[in-house]
Amino acid sequence: MPTTAIAAPRDSCDRRHNITYAKLLECVDLEDVLEHQRAFQKIADNSDDPDYPGSRAAGTDGYADSVEYVAGMLRDARLDVTLDPVEVTVNFPAELRQLTPVAAEYETGVFTGSGSGEVEGTVVPVDINLTDPAASTSGCEAEDFAGVDWSGNADIALVQRGFCNFGDKALNADEAGAEAVVIFNQGNGEDRMELIVANAATLGDGRTVTHSIPVVGASFAQGVALAEEGATAYVNVLPAETRTDYNVIAEVRGRDKDNVVMAGAHLDSVTEGAGINDNGSGSAALLETALSMASMKPHNTLRFAWWAAEEQGLVGSASYVEKLSQAERDRIALYLNYDMVGSPNYVQMVYDADQSTWEAPVVIPEGSTAIEDLFESYYTSIGVPYDDAEYSGRSDYQAFIEAGIPSGGLFTGAEVVKTPEQATIWGGTAGESFDPCYHQACDDIDNLALDALDVNSDVMAFAMLTYAFSTESVNGVKGRPVPGPAFELPAPAGARGTFAEAAGGGGLEHDHGHDHDTTG
Asked: Minimal CB count within 10 Å: which of 167, 261, 304, 490?
């Protein structure tokens, strides 16, 4: 156990067989979930990583201590725990300074997959649009770079977000002859003004793609300043470093070892802070579920996962699935993903596997709709309204659905602004983001909606116990009823409210700049 976060003593729940809904839901208590959240906060507070203090990001001491805490709790509960090694890329803080016509030092960040280098030279705007509505295809085509002399050894391409992948913009700039790229936010909405790589966006398709020149981010206001005639700037990106982190995998063996029910949440934060909602919320609730189920004897085998480096591009979960043989993949009946389940200005959302609201940009494995129905029926049974989140694959379920494994999950919102209609249904504040501290240092222990976290902890435990005894509705494999009194679920009440965020597992719109998002 790490000295940075000492867990509270466990109670009698951990020593009994919580094989009924009543017993398990009694034991998955909000206060116990918050104890794990406080431990994550303390780990971040005590982290003295020289580059990213106060963080639990992949590759940092804070992440290593988070792994030690989770694994230690699971081992104490006598679960079968494996630390699965993952190679992660650590980017060091970058520099972006404007030299002329004004002198200014800008906050910036490195895109995952960026090259390294130190460049001081002329800023060259590339097909940008600074006027409302700031619609921009800047840098999406090689032709955008035509008509400019890129033969110098210090040309900095200034590219605006919009329309296509960040990686396409960077690659086109690289091939045109630019020595560095600054990608600034689009400026066409409240969620498109701030520094892009406060979200550590990636130059790829959900995996790391390496480029040869430095690529850094900027806010819309910084982009406007850098676009002034005669602008020069300085960009410095240090070479990235490869380190080894770990996924934490824990298992409760069932009578059927060939029908595995799996649930996961990413354990890492962004570099800016502790990540207590994103994704300490999913990690803590999943941990409490696992501990409360540790002593039971399920029919199916249960597997819990805490993923490394989700914020770098789904690295940990992708690595895990890639290493599985086809036979091992075939044993996984389903996967449940929990990424941000306690957003302070929340909407309760379920991944829209039946595409009743959002047409999915991915192939949805058969059986996934049954998972959506289970979540929605539980919300209906307790009178909690819910809505659909786009089944986008843009969280740790991506690798599972690509392997054909039925998947589903919960989500309570990120940086998109809550509408008046949503505030009427779920409460909270219209005109503010679902999580105003999304990917910021203020995502701390005070950045939680405790009612949402409480409800979702129960939803997670209910789903895990249901599938612990039968996955027939998902993959056709018969099991047996959950012991104890039957819990009769009503049909789903249906999505409620006007929901403006085409989101999936991590609050991602099609064109939203999350860590593992690639879109400009």
From this structure: 490
17-21, 158-162, 353-357, 511-515 — which is least confidently predicted? 511-515
DSSP 177: T
The strand pairing partners of 81, in sequence order, are 250
Q: Is the pLDDT confidence value at 198 over 70?
A: no
The residue written with tokens 């989770």 in the block is: 70
Structure tokens at 346: 């929340």
**Positive or negative torsion for Cα 498, 501, 505, 510:** positive
Beta carbons within 8 Å of 355's beta carbon, 6+ residues apart: 364, 391
CATH class of 12-90+243-475: alpha beta
DSSP assignment letter at 391: -
Q: Using alpha carbons, list the distances in angstroms from residue 58 to 35, 55, 297.
A: 22, 9, 34
> From its phi and psi, is residue 149 left (phi > 0), alpha (psi between -120 and 50) or beta?
beta
Name the average pLDDT for the chain.
Answer: 90
pTM: 0.87
By C-alpha distance, which of 485, 384, 497, 501 is closest to 438? Answer: 501
CA dist list (Å): 41 to 57, 87, 345, 482: 13, 25, 20, 36
Catalytic residue among 35, 194, 272, 310: 310
Distance CA 504, CA 158 (A): 30
Is there a shared CATH topology between the 12-90+243-475 domain and the 95-237 domain? no
Please tell me the distance from the alpha carbon of residue 73 to that of residue 36, in angstroms, as a whole number: 10
Length of the chain (residues): 520
Alpha-carbon 351 to chain mean position: 14
Give the residue among 52, 95, 44, 305 at the shortest CA–CA distance from 214: 95
Domain 95-237, what fold?
Glucose Oxidase; domain 1 (3.50.30)
How high is the pLDDT of residue 202? 67
**Domain ranges (residues) in the chain:** 12-90+243-475, 95-237
Please enumerate in sequence order all residues whose Cβ is within 8 A of that of 467, keeping only pairs 6 or more positions apart, or say none: 261, 300, 333, 334, 474
By C-alpha distance, which of 370, 377, 372 is closest to 388?
372
